[in-house]
Design goal:
This protein is an alpha/beta fold. It has six helices and five strands.
């Protein structure tokens, strides 16, 4: 399926702290530059001011706000992106993507989810489904003991 994306909402990883995915700032920068080269307008949501210090990010519309469901929904309504990308937002992004799907917001506003299918997102967020999928493709999994 080919999507024609004129505007994308890129959700950053948030503030860098111990245990937080700070390497995702670099990944967000790479995604932003790739979209820029394709001529796609980028809406970049992040609450980490150090994520946006580069001059290269300036062509993006940057929103320095907490990365939460309310702010994402407000941006979708106000800015009307064609797509949203959470792959650089870490585990928080996975949870928010699931909430947006479950709430019907993405479908209601016709926003495509990039980087992972809905089925893939459901699989990685469900330990039993993930274990079953990994077992089916002969990947090793850690034995569960309760």
């Amino acid at each position: 399926m080919v999507l024609h994306i004129n505007k994308v909402l890129l959700v950053g990883s948030g503030a860098t702290s111990i245990g937080n995915e700070n390497e995702l700032d670099a990944a967000a920068f790479e995604k932003l530059m790739a979209f820029k080269k394709m001529g796609t307008k980028v809406l970049y949501l992040d609450d980490n001011p150090f994520s946006v210090v580069s001059d290269e990010i300036q062509p993006a519309d940057v929103f320095m706000q907490p990365i939460d469901l309310e702010n994402i929904v407000n941006l979708i309504i106000r800015q009307q992106p064609d797509a949203i990308l959470f792959s650089v937002a870490g585990l928080k992004g996975q949870a928010l993507a699931s909430q947006l799907i479950d709430s019907g917001i993405l479908e209601e506003h016709q926003v495509a989810l990039l980087g992972i299918s809905v089925a893939g997102l459901q699989t990685v967020n469900n330990n039993d489904m993930l274990r079953q999928t990994l077992t089916q493709i002969n990947e090793r999994v850690i034995a569960l003991r309760l």
